[in-house]
TrEMBL record:
Protein family according to the UniProt entry: Belongs to the short-chain dehydrogenases/reductases (SDR) family.
Signal peptide: 1-34
A Pfam cross-reference name: adh_short_C2
UniProt entry tagged with the keyword Signal: yes
Protein's recorded name: NAD(P)-dependent dehydrogenase, short-chain alcohol dehydrogenase family
GO molecular function: oxidoreductase activity
Matching PANTHER family: DIHYDROANTICAPSIN 7-DEHYDROGENASE
Length: 247
């Protein structure tokens, strides 16, 4: 038993499916998993971005353009995929921050589609295909623990994801279900801000953070790789935040 567990720590020849992986944290995680010997399958809603991402991955990688806001599309994708070892869900649109008085409720409802309902739907159709010793890793964020003014929707989604992680860890055991909880990471997630506001935001965070720098996609990718390789942690939300929640 001991040797079998140790052997499973490797990602060599494992098949890893990453949803929301044509750029940013998802692509960095695909690259990190591939560097460990995994065969990666990347998915996002834009074919051109998938094609571009595949040029940065090994030749045995696969890529598919799928609308992850559609249950039928997710169902059809997994119905033809076959078995695999690990599911990583990093899909999410650019953040839009509004105080509650200026929040459009109809738009707010849609904000959950990709980040929460897409993740839940992916779990529904992917979990029967995951091989023994496999895992599911979702994405939360420090807004769930330490929100600022205007972060009601982002905080709500993070809380929902972390609750989903715990519930799925119980229901789907022995499949391991966890999430990574990034702090502020320098990716396209913040592109809805204009350049001046975004740079000021980064500078404010750099000055405040214990590690005195903004996180990079590669920092978070390492956490996803850990969650795939480790064999005894489930129902956990692993914070990679540069000290965000401590300051």
């Amino acid at each position: 038993m001991e040797n079998k567990v140790k052997a499973s720590y490797s990602l060599k020849n494992k098949r890893v499916v990453l949803l929301g992986a044509s750029a940013g944290i998802g692509l960095a995680t695909a690259q990190a998993a591939a560097a460990e010997g995994a065969q990666v399958v990347i998915v996002s809603g834009n074919q051109q971005k998938i094609d571009n991402a595949l040029t940065e991955l090994p030749a045995n990688s696969e890529g598919y353009a799928i609308n992850l806001s559609s249950e039928d599309n997710i169902k059809n994708f997994f119905s033809t995929l076959g078995t695999f070892d690990h599911l990583v869900y990093t899909a999410g649109e650019n953040l839009t921050l509004n105080i509650i008085a200026e929040t459009d409720i109809e738009q707010a409802l849609k904000f959950f589609n990709l980040r929460y309902w897409g993740a839940l739907t992916a779990i529904k159709y992917a979990s029967p295909l995951i091989s023994a010793g496999g895992s599911i890793s979702l994405t939360s964020g420090t807004a769930g623990t330490r929100p600022g003014s205007g972060w009601a929707l982002a905080s709500s989604i993070c809380g929902a994801i972390e609750g989903l992680v715990r519930a799925m860890a119980v229901e789907l055991a022995p499949i391991r279900v966890n999430s990574v909880v990034p702090g502020v990471i320098q990716t396209g997630l913040w592109d809805s801000m204009n350049d001046i506001d975004r740079n000021n935001f980064y500078k404010t965070m750099e000055d405040a953070l214990l590690l005195k720098r903004i996180g990079q996609a590669e920092d978070v990718a390492l956490a996803f790789v850990y969650l795939m390789k480790q064999q005894f942690g489930t129902g956990q939300n692993i914070m990679i935040d540069g000290g965000t929640v401590l300051v």
